[in-house]
Amino acid sequence: MYVARVGARPMGAAFISGMHLSATLAEPAHFSRLEIALLLVGMVVSTALFFWRFGPILRIIFRSRKDTDFSLHPVGKRVWDFFAEVLCQAKVIRQRPLPGLAHAFVFWGFLAFVLVTLNHIATPLGLSFLHPSSYAGRFYFIFAALWALLVAVAIAGLFVRRFLARPIWLGEKVSYESGVIALLIFLLMVSYLAAFFVAPDGAGIRAVWWTHTLTLLVFLPLIPHTKHLHLVLSPVTVFLKRNGFSKIPPLSGDEDFGLVTGRDVTQLISLQAYSCVECGRCTEHCPASNTGKVLNPKEIILGTRSYLNEFGPASETPLLTDTKIDSPDNPAAKYMSMEAAFECTTCGSCEFQCPVGIQHLPIIIGLRRGATNTGTWEDPHGTKLFLALEKNGNALGLSATERDKFIQKQGLPIFDGTQEYCLWLGCMGGYDPKGREIIADFARVMQHLGTTFGVLKKEKCTGDPARRLGNDLAFQSMAEFGLKALETAKVQKIVAICPHCVRTISNDWREYGVAPEIEHHSEFMARHKSLLPQQSSGESIVYHDPCYLGRYREVYEQPREIVSMAGDLVEAPRSHERSFCCGAGGGLAFLGEENGERVSHVRAAELAGTGAQIVGTACPFCNTMFRDTLSAMDGAPPQLLDIAQLTARALPQTQKAGEQ
Amino acid sequence: MKILVAIKQVPERDAQISIAGDGRWIDESDLNYTINEPDAYALEEALQLKDKNGGEVVVLCAGPERVTSTLREALAKGADRAIHIEADDLGHRDTLGLAQVLAEAIKDESPDLILTGLQSDDLGLGQTGVVLAEILGMPHATIIMQVEVTGAGLKVKRELEDGWFQHVEMPLPALLTIQSGGNKLRYATLMGIKKAKTKEMKTVQAAAPAAGQTITLERVYLPEKQKKTEMLTGTPAEIAAKLVEKLKFEVRVI
Asked: Are strands A421-424 and A493-496 parallel, antiparallel or unpaired?
């Protein structure tokens, strides 16, 4: 029994320049009892070591709080994401082409090697299913050999990148474990390929076979201990991730205030934290990390993991520490700081970029919820914002009568149920001077198109800044007010100039009711493009993708169509889904001065650096952030116009709203 | 230390006020109500004193059913108990009558300190606290910016005219009427609202108003709007200085 099969004959063997190259791989013809015993012991030890390390991680994940809102539905999308992101490695390759492709080769090679490896271990036990002499076996072993070549080259390339090129995103410290893993993978491939070059009888094949086997046995227990745990977890993580971008789960029960302690960390968060492969794509694209702030999204994920490792999912130790007040008291202070959590602009680059399905925003916003809902977050600007929302119902803290005056002055009709659209003003459109200009121009565009519209008599903030800063109480009251106001007015369709309003109404409000259909004015204008004046001024216009329109809503082309009508579209170095934030999101427009460089300065300089004559925006918050920065620039800074203003410029002058 | 905070609920600042049919009060339908601003600062002062010195904060509010929302908010911000004095006719009670109602409702409480806002945003009489102190036989101080507990007594900072302040030491128990802006207000939190649900809210009935009130309300009316334009003259520096003064002391926006 122990000599399962008389090893393959050197069928089709050929001698090229004196070297023995076989058209199939060689296997030892015979395994002694001792060898089989050694293999079995090795397998048991290796597997035991694997579970010795992986078991506690699984326990932490399973003992974390259940995600009460989790649903597998829609499965189709999950299967598709799994196919695209895991099997095709689409995101890995698209967002970092060269290393991404190298990684994809290693991954696909691993898949090709599943059968090879199983067969390799099965052979001495007499259970082999791929015979080197059979046609199927010969075909498959050569197929795998091609992959082995690709994997060997790719892993060598990745090794060079990590240890010689050393991009800063991989972290300051060199991970020696990664080097060991790379060497093991290289050794696996080389020892596989070597079997094509040795004779099936003799010491050579035995050495090759055992090298391959031992490498496998060493590799397995290293997985759970290192970031290579993503081999096991990330396919599951990608399949199970929350359905929707920046999806903030509803709070469950009276004791849930967000992520306060380990007890609030959910299974999905644990799973995601342990899946992190530490590639640093999140950090590479993070506006906070790029401008000298404390926040590093990768460290938030690794901080969560370290917290779970040290304290576990049942711990009452706070997750966040206010480094300004109580750093020495909290043993978890070394992991995550409140300062970092509140530096996030919620631009979503991290979540968009993550190749292993980690969803940073529910975690960062969850941490903020934990701090704000319990009143632990004490920030004078934040408090002022929340009080303004409580008292005035708008984020700017102005009297609601200011909005009434603007509506009256501008001659905007009040929505009475007869009009097609409700024009949602938002805080910026209703109270901010520049936002009001955008509204006035967009109203002219709608009038030109003959579209009937009206504005709500009373409107409060959608609650977006409260939502992103983790104030569920203020958010709920805003959402409920808005839903009721729209329902009472019998609104069917809404159009808004602010992507934050659009996102919050269409998505975040769902927790409290169903809002009417809403679209952004870029979508509205692009649909009516043929009826709008096609008069290009010939000026060059660089378009800035707002985070909440692009990554959040996947609207990239409509605003570009509008811009192209008004002038010559220029692309910024970072555009579309890689657009760099203006710094206003996540409620940060209302908070105090930033640490380090201002995000808006970096982005405005990048936009101005394209040499375009005009910066085209599609969000009143981006607009306000760039306004100050551009006006402070030396020389002749580009003009700053919203897409509604770009369109309105070409309209006949007689149709000025408010002058009728 | 037991601190009692007397709160009033008033129409929101942005509210479009109209006069009721009988011309003797405002039309209360379709109005949104909120905490009287100086009372919010009185509550904040009480909560900060409790944070520093320990003790209990009890909030007190007279009015119809709707005032319980303001009491709930006060509980959410950190008050321990609430007393709701049910009365639907506050507009027709004079200050003395109201102060008597408040005094009656707290006769078993024996607080160390009573705080109120210095005046209400709607009527602006500024007397309720003072009259209440008189009825209870307590010393009082008005327009208070800062409070410090010193052993058995208090050290308070009063705001006087023209940027002057007065520092007063006084014994306990005492009543203070609090000026707006002395502290930073806290925001309401979800946790606070949830906790507030389990806190005690006692409802007592206000006694019928005594016959022969000292003050009777004859008529309420909206202020007649007038637009006044004044040209400032002088050098730019002088104009700027005058403008700043007017913005500070006449328009009171900076």
From this structure: parallel
CA of B244 to nearest chain A CA: how many angstroms apart? 21
Tens digits of residue pLDDT in B101-143: 999 999 899 999 999 999 999 888 899 999 999 999 999 999 9
**What are φ and ψ of residue A156, in 5° steps?**
-65, -40
Q: List, in order, residues 6 or more apart from A528 with CB less than 8 Å away.
A: A449, A451
Instruction: Report the length, in residues, of chain B.
Output: 254
- pLDDT per residue as tens digits for the range A99-108: 999 999 999 9
Which pTM value belongs to this model? 0.89
In chain B, the largest separation of any two C-alpha atoms, in whole Å, equals 64
Neighbours of B154 (CB within 10 A): 23
Please check whether residue B31 touches A, CB under 8 A: no
Within 8 A of A403 by CB-CB distance, chain B residues are none
Looking at residue A21, its pLDDT comes to 64
Distance (Å) from the C-alpha of residue A467 to the closest C-alpha of chain B?
Answer: 12
Quick check: helix, strand or coil at residue A490? coil
Is the domain of A269 the same as that of A417? no
The alpha-helical segments, DSSP class H, found in chain B are 37-53, 67-77, 95-105, 128-136, 190-196, 236-245
Domain end (from A193, A210, A238): A238
Contacts of B191 in chain A (CB under 8 A): 257, 373-375
Question: Is B164 in the A-facing interface, judged by CB distances under 8 Å?
Answer: no
**Contact status, residue A363 vs residue A276, Cβ threshold 8 Å:** no
Which DSSP symbol is given to A529? G
Q: Over 80: is that where the pLDDT of A653 sits?
A: no
Structurally, how many domains does chain A consist of?
4
If you ran DSSP here, which 8-state letter would residue A588 be given?
G
Chain A residues within 8 A of B193 when measuring between CB atoms: 473
Question: Is the pLDDT assigned to residue A352 strictly greater than 80?
Answer: yes
Checking if the pLDDT of A9 tops 70, the result is: no
User: Could B186 and A383 be called an inter-chain contact, meaning their C-beta atoms sit closer than 8 Å?
Assistant: yes
Chain A residue numbers with beta carbons less than 8 Å from the beta carbon of B34 are 391
Tens-digit pLDDT profile for residues A447-459: 999 999 999 999 9
Mean pLDDT on A475-500? 97
B189 touches chain A (CB under 8 A): yes
Q: Give contacts of B185 with chain A, Cβ < 8 Å.
A: 383, 387
Q: Which residues contact B22 (CB under 8 A, 6 or more apart)?
A: none
Domain count, chain B: 1
What pLDDT band is residue B189 in, cutting at 50, 70 and 90? very high
User: Mean pLDDT lowest for which of A412-416, A602-606, B139-143, B183-187?
Assistant: B183-187
Q: Buried b / exposed e across A575-600, counting CB within 10 Å, b at 16+? A: bebbbbbbbbbbbbbbbeebeeebbb
CA distance A11 to A22: 8
CB A343, CB A295: distance < 8 Å: yes
Q: What is the DSSP string of A401-452?
A: HHHHHHHHHHTPPBP-SSSSEEEE-HHHHHH-HHHHHHHHHHHHHHHHHT--
Q: Is the Cβ pair A374, B189 closer than 8 Å?
A: yes
Q: What is the CATH number of the domain that holds A509?
A: 3.40.50
B199 near A CB under 8 A: no
Name the residue among A487, A486, A518 with its Cα closest to residue A503. Answer: A518
Residue A82 per-residue DSSP state: I
Last residue of a domain, one of A316, A339, A373: A373
Q: Among B110, B104, B66, which Cα is nearest to B204's?
A: B104
In a shared domain, residues A153 and A20: yes
Domain span holding position B29: 2-225
Contact between A61 and A267 under an 8 Å Cβ cutoff? The reply is yes
Same domain, A195 and A275: no
